[in-house]
Amino acid sequence: MMTAVAGGQASDPDVVGCEALPVDLEGITDSVDRALAITLCMPDRQEIDSMANRLRGALNLFLAEGLEISANQEARRMSSCAHRLLELNARPDADTPQFTAFEYTRELARVTRYFVGLWQEHHPTGGCDG
User: Fold this and answer.
1) Taking burial as the number of CB atoms within 10 A of a residue's CB, which of 2, 24, 40, 108 is the most buried?
2) Cα gap 6→37, rounded to integer Å
3) CA torsion angle 5 124 119 130 (round to 10)
């Protein structure tokens, strides 16, 4: 398992430096690949919701990292898309049709895949910057 570590300040005073935000790139990439590999042979709703939860967690991690996106128009657009997907009122609920939840999860995976690539650009060795 390849784990990169994000730099930055931790909110927990007991956590210092790089250990604050471990990024499991293989796990995130696996979740993205699995979500995008889902076919129209629909998995059950519980699996779709579980995958969406993992992807939301990964997206939140990348957004919290504060990757330098201000100079990159595509990164700003994808950041806005990520924030839109993470809004509570944008998430599927129990009454949302299964296919709509499926499409939402695929969009989460697509955006998360972009941020995996952006992370790798900023952390080419997979290590800690700080």
Assistant:
1) 108
2) 28
3) 40
